[in-house]
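Below is how a single chain appears once it has passed through the pipeline. First comes the sequence as given, then the structure the pipeline wrote out for it. We keep one example in the README because the format questions we get most often are answered faster by looking than by reading.
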Amino acid sequence: MLFESRGAHPRVDSDALVAASAIVSGDVTIGPGSRIMHGAVVTAEDGPIVIGANVVVLENAVIRGRAGNPAIFGDDVMVGPHAHVNGCTVGSGVFIATGASVFPGAVIGDGAEVRINAVVQVNTRLSAGAVVPISWVAVGDPAQLFSPDRHDEIWAVQRELDFVGTVYGAGAGATMSDIMQSQSAFYGEHRSDTELLS
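Resulting structure:
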């Protein structure tokens, strides 16, 4: 299903495929040979999404464009089922596996792999050809790789990367109540979305 959202509508190449149960919303460009499979959500919340050629977004994956952090994909990228790819730049030939998460401001170099349930944190730069092992965390610029049991070391790097500002546009002193009131208003704007006829 295609939706106009926030005054913008998707542009889907005639050689691309959007499955009937997928959602593509707002300022989204999908290149030739690309496939958005069942249950996937590709939503340009407040920043554009550009998907290159021969990109496959598998079932129930979520891709978001964010203010200041559009989601840009090169060619020949695989986004696995249940992956979450949010406001980042993804080079060509990248593999993002099942359940992986890539956060706003991240840059994934050409040919890199983000394996099952791995995480690439906000404002992290992963070099070309790098591999984030299963369930590991990449954090920092340049990325450092940590196993998930090394929380204190991950946090020592992550706390300098402005997660709250990058993801929510909020200041360091924002409370959860502040953040959620803002988020509720922001997502409430979807009341005016319009389904486009194919």
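The chain has one domain: 2-196.

See the next section for the split statistics.
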